[in-house]
Every structure is written in structure tokens, then in C-alpha cells.
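Subject: Sanity check before I submit

Could someone independently write out the C-alpha cells for this chain? I want to compare against mine line by line before I put it in a report. The sequence has 354 residues.
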Amino acid sequence: MNGTTGQHGAHFLDRVPFDWSLPASRELRDLLSSVHFREEPVIALAQQAGIPPASVRWGQPMAAVWHDLIGTARNQDKLRALLDQIMAGPDAALAGRVGELLRAQPVVEAPEPPADAGTWRHFHDPDAAERRIFRTGSYLDVSFLRRGMELSTAVARLLVTFPDGRQYHGTGFRIGEDMLLTNHHVLFDGSDGARPAAAVEAWFGYERDLGGRDLAHVRVPCAAESAVGDAAYDWAVVRVAAPVPDGTAVVELPATTDVAPGDRVYIVQHPHGGVKKLAAHHNVVRHADDDVVQYWTDTDGGSSGSPVFDERWRLVALHHRWVRIGALTEPPEYRNQGIRIDRVAEGVRRAGRV
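---
Independent answer below. Compare away.
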């Protein structure tokens, strides 16, 4: 199985019982619970799809509600009807993302390399998903918002296609006139990270306004054959093959950075392959060394390749995964992790890409 279809080649939506071991299954649940997080509208959607509300266990956290609703809908052969109701709603971005999951080859998060690979070799985790971790907050000067809006234009959703037709989503950002930076595991597939993508597309301006209305975005093709990177430090760059939108910022790739435990970091990203988001809570740095920066700032599937900024919007890391700290027999601490930008910048410059 390749994570998109189940046994006997059936689409993941058509498996009975619903197969939660497939990445597309979990992405569907997490996507729907992140958008439809109030119970009453979800009950209405279930009724419109012909699912008796009494057959679903309500009153749980919404991720658990959606887990139960999806499984119940599949058992009643009404899952596709439920998704049709969702896609007929006013949220065009959600409809587009669900549509990607409905494809014969669903678009899912780019698979991460083994947990003991590269610079995270000292961390051993039984899971490889992105993670939401903690709660905290802080005061900021309002100028922070202005600069953040400027730099956020550099961040794009990536749609990556491999020669066998599989498609994955991730995040990337502009670091030069025609150059985008993301994770190696987003642009290169396989256990050894050697198989390059056949096509890459960057979606600039894929976001919403404060009224929840989808803004027009621009899909920019990239020259997939130009991609180079380093699996050990999980970075890769690719050239755009067409002009990016006017006003798109360039994020400076610093030679050195100053980041330490207790600092706060912010991540502009495309979680779940959806519209652009800013993670600005739970954002304390817990660890920093010569290779990695670990933080509580939120991410989700699809956030791989996002820029990690400090409070002055200086790039400090390239986000790539989460890690579990502590022995498996002890209560864990979960952290998100980025490759320190010093290491990335060294490699990009050695490759002659900036």
C-alpha cells in the first residue's frame, strides 16, 4: 500500500471498515475537525447526508467526533454523500482540499524520512506526524504585524507530483529571485531520498481575508529538474519556472543566527494543505544547538518546509518534524523541530543556489 489506497486497490474512502492506518484517512479527519470544530453544524451536515445523528457519539472533542462520524458514515455507505455536502458548502478552500483527497491518487502530506535519519538521529519516535503541543502567549509591538504580513507573502503551498502519479503537499518559501526553499523529504521521495519529483507547483497567496473569504491565488510552476538538497539536514531548493506575483517578499537566508531556549518563534505555514496560517501561540523555544531548534509552536501535516522566525522576523530555522523527548516508559514532552538555518544556509551556498 502507498498510503492512498487500501487493500485490493480500493480508494481509501471505499474501504469497509474505514482504514485509519492510511495517511489520507487521518488527513481527512484532521482537516475536517480543524475547519468544522463546532458540533451543531456538523450534526446538520450528517443529517443532510442521511446519517441518523443518533448513530454518532456526540459530546466528545471534535477530532473524536469526526473520527466516529467518518467511520459511521462509511459503514452506512454515506461517506461520499457527507463529503459532497461539505464540498457544496461556502468554503471553497476546504472543498478544494477535500477534492484533492477524492482523487484516485489522493494528495497527502509528504512522507517524512525515518526517525533516525539525518540531524534527528538521536530522537526515536513511534510516529512521524506534525503535532500541536501546548499553550502560552506574549505581548508584541504592533510593528510585528506589519513586518509579518510583508514576509508572509514569500510563503507558498507546494503541490508535488512524483513519476508514479502520487502527489503530496507541503510548504515552501522564497529565498531568492527565482528560488524556493523547503524540506528535502517534500521534493525527494523514497527511503533513501533519491527519487526527485517530476513536477512542482507553488501556490502563492493561498489564504483568506478576515471575513473568511478565499482570496485569489497564483499557481506558479517550478522547474522540478532544478531541485537539489541534502537529506541529512532535510533541506531542498527548487527554481520557479514562471514569474512570482508582484510584491512577493524574499526571505533573507542569514549566514548565522542567534536563537536560544526561552526565545519565541513564529511559523507561517500551510497546515493540512489548506490556506496559509500563522502559528503565534505556544511558541517557546525549548532547545537549540548547532543543528536543530526545538519549540512548542504549533504545526500540522503539510507544515514541513515552513520558515521559523524570531520576534524580529529573522529566519532562524526550517521546520521539518516533531520529536518526542524522554524514554517511552516515561511521560513524554513533545516538541516541534526545525533545522537551524545556519546549517541550511551553508548547504545552499555550497550548492551555488544563492
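---
OP: Matches mine. For the report I'm noting this point. Residues 136 and 279 are 12 Å apart (CA to CA).
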